[in-house]
Design a protein that fits this description.
heterodimer, A: 382 residues, FAD/NAD(P)-binding domain, 8-stranded mixed β-sheet, B: 101 residues, Ubiquitin-like (UB roll), two-stranded antiparallel ribbon
């Protein structure tokens, strides 16, 4: 069935749904989201779902602060019938090396200057916050009580429901097979369910963003990388914050339901679209987890899975237009923090499409930064 | 009624051992599933649902369904349908999701 739209968004994750919601809220009619499977079936629904304001660059601190403030009121603002389950138990980022101690103290100064209530704490203070941790394994920690984590499925659904109420159409189980460009301008999107004529396409395809871009002849400097994660059985609440280490390679949170979700990166992970699971991950994850959080040795794991980080050269997102193809907008390259920046994505990409000035400072995240060689040097990425 | 055979598990019926269920002394056969020993004593409620506090009993009997989770020797979330009974085991009804120590 053929149809037309004013904007076609490719990808039904947090980014696509947040962009659609923001466009519709600004009065844009005929917005269509195309999703290959179901909402949150890609990177969004596979992520660790943390949100931290503890970054090392001013821009990222500001973006994350915007997201946290949004998540705090998401149920009300989006008039969601469910609950996004925002657990604001903080992020405890442990310092395991002298380099981290110095970096965190520098980061905290910056964060505090921007109104982020993070603080440097001793191992003993860290243990008071996470009583089951082995404080002898750390030199200190950075803690921000306003960080936290939420449910990525509910959060995406909240955006999607609000968008649909405002007239957005979501085409699930629909695959984009081609994008038509005429005279350097977007003309339409071919899907396995028919053709949609449109002047604007948003690439919010997560781990598949580079494939979508190639459909319009734009070769993005992106690759996808598998990241694995697991969930345990539920126990009574015992851990408030997300427990995390950059150098020791772990993040671990306890959901409001009581189960623990934990993950770690691995430099040998395949750089393609595979989302299979490996036993090596399970073994390494268990070792790291038990070293820092010993009582978890007695908890049973329920299942493990994997998702894709869409990696950019500076591990930062790419937002906005592509100058060679008019009407083609990017919302990709999140490098593992696309979920937490979802509220920002929705606002800034809708502003880009409508030619409005950005209300959040993201100009540095434009696509042409790679051409100009103006990469962002963020010290605090996983 | 005592569960003597199982379609998947095999267990040896050992000597008679003593154990406690919520502080009450009981007897069962060493090596049989704890849930089987409880069942033989007429105890069919093994736990309660989290939201509505409804009784839960023996269900899948192969360690999959979580219906028989109990605290055994201080450890929560033990699947009593596949956990073998030992001499002096302390078996308790679990309240809530279990606390890790």
């Amino acid at each position: 069935m053929n149809k037309s739209a004013s904007v076609v968004i490719i990808g039904g994750g947090i980014s696509g749904c947040a962009i659609a919601y923001n466009l519709a809220k600004k009065g844009v009619k005929d917005v269509i989201i195309i999703e290959k499977e179901y909402l949150s079936s890609g990177a969004t629904g596979r992520c660790g779902a943390g949100i931290r304001m503890q970054w090392g660059t001013e821009m990222n601190c500001r973006l994350a602060k915007y997201s946290v403030e949004f998540f705090e009121t998401a149920n009300e603002v989006l008039e969601y019938a469910g609950d996004v389950e925002f657990k604001q138990g903080g992020y405890l980022i442990i310092a395991a090396t002298e380099k981290e101690v110095a970096q965190f103290q520098k980061n905290i100064k910056l964060q505090n200057s921007l109104g982020i209530p993070s603080r440097y704490i001793t191992p003993q203070e860290a243990k008071e916050i996470v009583p089951h941790m082995d404080e002898t394994q750390i030199l200190g920690a950075a803690f921000n009580p306003k960080d936290g984590h939420l449910n990525p499925f509910h959060t995406t659904q909240a955006y999607a429901d609000a968008a649909v109420r405002l007239g957005v159409e979501i085409m699930k189980y629909t695959e984009v097979t081609g994008i038509k460009v005429e005279n350097g301008k977007i003309a339409g999107v071919q899907t396995d369910k028919g053709y949609i004529s449109t002047p604007v396409v948003v690439n919010a395809a997560g781990g598949h963003a580079q494939i979508i871009s190639e459909m319009v002849g734009v070769k993005l400097p992106l690759y996808s990388e598998r990241h694995q994660i697991l969930v345990t059985e539920a126990v009574e609440p015992m851990q408030g914050p997300m427990f995390m280490s950059f150098s020791q390679n772990i993040y671990c949170q306890q959901t409001p339901h009581g189960s623990f979700i934990m993950g770690r990166g691995d430099p040998t992970e395949p750089r393609d679209l595979r989302v299979t699971s490996s036993w090596e991950f399970l073994e390494e994850m268990a070792k790291t987890c038990i070293r820092f959080l010993p009582p978890l040795k007695d908890i049973r794991m329920v299942r493990q899975w994997a998702g894709l980080y869409n990696m950019s050269p500076d591990a930062q997102p790419i937002y906005g237009p592509v100058k060679d193809v008019e009407g083609f907008f990017l919302a990709c390259g999140y490098s593992g923090h696309g979920f937490m920046f979802g509220p920002v994505t929705g606002v800034v990409v809708s502003e880009s499409i409508l030619g409005e000035e950005h209300t959040i400072p993201v100009d540095a995240l434009s696509y042409d930064r790679f051409e100009k060689g103006e990469l962002i040097l963020e010290p605090s990425v996983v | 009624m005592r569960i003597e055979s199982h379609p998947i598990l095999t267990f040896e019926k050992g000597k008679i051992v003593k154990f406690t269920y919520n502080g009450k002394e009981m007897e069962g056969y060493e090596g049989e599933p704890i849930a089987a020993a409880l069942h033989a004593q007429g105890i069919k409620v093994l736990g309660y649902t989290h939201h509505r506090n409804r009784p839960r009993g023996f269900y899948c009997a192969i360690g999959n369904c979580s219906s028989c989770l109990m605290v055994v020797n201080g450890k929560p979330n033990v699947r009593t349908c596949v956990e073998k009974l030992t001499e002096g085991a302390v078996v308790e009804t679990q309240k809530g999701r279990g606390e890790l120590k």
